[in-house]
Amino acid sequence: MNIPVKYRVWIKSIKKILPVVGFCFNDPTGDVEVEYPNKGQYRCWNSQKGECVVMQYIGLKDAIDKGNEIYTRDILKFKSAYPHAKCKCGKTYESWSQNDFYCSVCGEELHFDEDIIGEVIYVVKDKTDNACNRRCQFCVRTADELYSFDYVSFINKITILGNTFENPELTKIK
Predict the structure, then answer these.
(1) What is the value of pTM for the model shown?
(2) How many CA atoms, within 13 angstroms, populate the side-chain half-sphere of residue 20?
(3) Longest dimension (CA), the chain
(4) Which domain holds residue 98?
(5) In a domain, 2, yes or no
(6) pLDDT tens, residue by residue, 146-167
C-alpha cells in the first residue's frame, strides 16, 4: 500500500492546525513552512524550538464520519474486542486477532464489547513494533493499553473525535 506523504502542523502561537507545504532541511533549525495567513503567503515555524508540532498522515480516513484523514495526535474512538468479543449465537471470544471480525461458528459479524478512546501516537512501517511486539502500521495509546493496527483492521470502525491540541479535554483518556 502506497501511502501519500502528508503532514500538518499545530502552531502554538496562533492555536491552529495548518497543512505543511515544506520543510527547511538545509537549515539546521528545523523550520516547518506553512501557507499562512493567505494562499500564496508562506511563513516558517521552528519545530525544534517548540513553536509547532508536526503530525504525520497515517494513510487512513475516518470511514464512519466524513472521510477525514487520520494523523498522529488525533483522538480516535473505535470498537475493541478486548477483553471479549461476542456473537449473536452466544460464542464468546477471549482473545482476538485481525481476522476475527466474523464468528467461526455461524459467520455473523462479532459484537465488540466497548468503545475505546485513544491518541494516535506513531506510524510503524513494515516491521515488528517493539512496544506492541506485533507487526503494525500505527498505534493508539489509551490510559491503560497500547493498541497496534494494520491498515485493514478496524477500517470501518474508527471515528475521529478530535486531536490533542484543539480538543485537550479528550486527552484525559479514561
Answers:
(1) 0.72
(2) 22
(3) 62
(4) 7-171
(5) no
(6) 777 665 555 557 889 999 999 9
